[in-house]
Amino acid sequence: MTIKLLAIGKTDNKNLQSLIDEYTKRLGFYIKFSLEIIPDIKNAKNLSKKQQKQKEGELIINKLNMSDVLILLDENGKQLDSIEFSNYLQKHMNSGIKQLVLVIGGPYGFSEDVYNKSNGKISLSKMTFSHQMVRLFIIEQLYRGFTILKNEPYHHR
């Protein structure tokens, strides 16, 4: 199984990008992982929220393969602790899927088309975080999940 993280817009903060790079590198010891950035929509200020979500949704869907399992990082998704998340990853690996795709949407969330195509939703917290910080948090949690599965000391139980 491979894991791909799709995110809208680049990370502007160099310190945050450095941490994202660090955890991406660490995660690479456990699984084939990629972070793919979908460029911000041009002239978004001239679009309604619905139009922006629709355009972002088209870009997200165009990045998917037919066999991908699509999981949205969504405020209304299921909340898991780190051990539950590691078990969630293991379940997907055991199912024989080729690629798990996690998606961080744009500022207004996802279009109906993306929701309809998704196989599930996960929430990192009831709190709101910047989309750039969510990238770091989910990559760190993926890394933590794999250290849990390997019984390595990174996660203290």
TrEMBL record:
Gene3D superfamilies: 3.40.1280.10. One of its GO terms (molecular function) is rRNA (pseudouridine-N3-)-methyltransferase activity. Keywords: Cytoplasm, Methyltransferase, rRNA processing, S-adenosyl-L-methionine, Transferase. S-adenosyl-L-methionine binds at L73, G105, L124, S125, K126, M127, T128, F129. The keyword Cytoplasm applies. It catalyses: pseudouridine(1915) in 23S rRNA + S-adenosyl-L-methionine = N(3)-methylpseudouridine(1915) in 23S rRNA + S-adenosyl-L-homocysteine + H(+). InterPro entries: Alpha/beta_knot_MTases, RlmH-like, tRNA_m1G_MTases_N. It is found in: Cytoplasm. GO terms for cellular component: cytoplasm. The keyword S-adenosyl-L-methionine applies. Pfam families: SPOUT_MTase. Its main location: cytoplasm. It comes from the Bacteria. Its EC number is 2.1.1.177. It is an enzyme of class 2 (transferase). Specifically methylates the pseudouridine at position 1915 (m3Psi1915) in 23S rRNA. Belongs to the RNA methyltransferase RlmH family. Homodimer. This is Ribosomal RNA large subunit methyltransferase H.
